[in-house]
Amino acid sequence: MSTEHVSGGKDRIIIFDTTLRDGEQSPGCSMNIEEKVRMAHLLDEMGVDVIEAGFPIASPGDFEAVQEISRAVKNATIAGLARAKKGDIEASFEAIKDAPKRRIHTFISTSPLHMKYKLQMPPEAVLDAIVESVTFARSLTDDVEWSAEDGSRTEDDFLCQCVEAAIRAGATTINIPDTVGYTTPAEYAAQFEMLRNRVPNIDKAILSVHCHNDLGLGVANSLAGVRAGARQIECTVNGIGERAGNAAMEEVVMAMRTRPDVYPFETGIETTMITRVSRALSAITGFSVQPNKAIVGANAFAHESGIHQDGMLKNAQTYEIMTPESVGLKKSELVMGKHSGRHAFRDKLKQLGYELGDNAIEDAFARFKRLADKKKQVFDDDIMALVDDEILRIGDKIKFVSLQVVAGSTGPQSAELTLEVEGGTKSARAEGNGPVDAIFKAIRAICPHEEARLLLYQVHAITGGTDAQAEVTVRLEENGKTVNGQGADPDTLVASCRAYLHALNKLMVKRERRAPDESL
Ligand SMILES: [Zn+2]
């Protein structure tokens, strides 16, 4: 497979999204299978070239997720991660084999530190393992990526030997990860130039960057690598990932789009989907984006200071280097009221990019009517929050039915709660130190979960005004496993209850986690 064939030209950058593998691996970002498939559809729709769907050997849940995604996705290549072990590579292939386009991504550490302490293997044995693993992977599929874990801290001579051997064994993509987020732009670029100058068969493979953001340099390092000849960027939506995260997809893509004079490259990404995909990921994981985050933060396109506003009114370009429309950010407009019918609601959902089954539409419509009764103006953002909330709950074993709360300064605060638990109705009344505490105690009374600890309770307003819907995030931890729950409702206390239930439902989905040191 030639370079031109895969990349579609020397200036075309392959976007390799690892939100579902490297991103999902970070604490608090775990997703269930349905959530992963939903994200994979969105990534495919936005034009991601390669979706790294998971690490199939890590757990049966990971395997199943990669398999489901391979069967669901139409356009993107699906990659499955594998260590340099026969069993890993077999599991990876087994999981991706139904995908129309599939890639085995295998890796091993090459830095002196990792080889000595993590692998406890001499360099010669590592080199043998590379040849063996790539050869085996290539016998299963003709699209094989090989990664040098901790590549940025690997000695030049040894890295050249490894890369040359991997390409000779059949690797079609060579990735040099900055696993620990240590490199700098000039240094990383020099490493790619060094490889291109010294490895004799280097033109037989596509070079790839994979950068972590420990020093805030993930995006800068990725772009430096591309300028030095890399043609694949590994990245995640919202920059999620272990520790400080990975290079953010929206940032590398918009940097190339906004500064073609410096980065004369193209991607296949439909940038107008960026905002929607970013929000979908936040809603699924409960990881909201900081307001000043580039491209997708709430303030990223808010030019609010007086001086800026004056300039903006005269000519938007005075302070705006990209338009909000280019990333799919639309002004939140008044869309519907309480007289809007089912048909208009259905059209609105379609326009916002949701495809729901009839039952889900009915449930969402009923909630929309209740919302429109309470709130004069219903905005796009309100509808998105409501529908996201509805989608989150599909398949839940514990469901919200009703809640009455006594709050105020004279106390005691109490909650009377009814839930549907696996088909039957259960109620409880509890007093607490404040209404939220009372609600959470009532949930515990109905569904005991003594091991779980509450790590985070956070409230956001979705739109402006005192009648805005509240979006609540709750993070629970049980035996080292962390889950996030989200809930939206015009009543903050109902939203709190829904968020807690969402997290509790996720906790009940048992999942094996992989060993934490196995990552790129
Ligand atoms: Zn990584």
Which keywords apply here?
disordered N terminus, 520 residues, 3-stranded antiparallel β-sheet, 8-stranded parallel β-barrel, binds zinc ion, alpha/beta, globular, TIM Barrel
Q: Strands, helices and their partners?
A:
Elements lengths: L2 H5 L6 E4 L1 H5 L9 H13 L4 E5 L5 H13 L4 E7 L2 H11 L5 E8 L2 H8 L3 H18 L3 E6 L6 H13 L4 E6 L6 H14 L7 E6 L6 H10 L4 E4 L13 H10 L15 H12 L20 H9 L19 E3 L5 H10 L6 H17 L3 E2 H13 L5 E9 L6 E9 L2 E9 L2 H12 L6 E9 L8 E9 L2 E9 L2 H17 L12
Parallel strand pairs: 1-2, 1-8, 2-3, 3-4, 4-5, 5-6, 6-7, 7-8
Antiparallel strand pairs: 9-10, 11-12, 12-13, 14-15, 15-16
Zinc ion binds next to loops.
Quick recap:
With 520 residues, the protein is α/β, with parallel strands linked by helices. It has helices at residues 3-7, 19-23, 33-45, 60-72, 86-96, 112-119, 123-140, 156-168, 185-198, 218-227, 249-258, 274-285, 306-314, 342-351, 358-374, 380-392, 435-446, 492-508, and strands spanning 14-17, 50-54, 77-83, 102-109, 144-149, 173-178, 206-211, 232-235, 334-336, 378-379, 398-406, 413-421, 424-432, 453-461, 470-478, 481-489. The protein is globular and about 75 Å long.
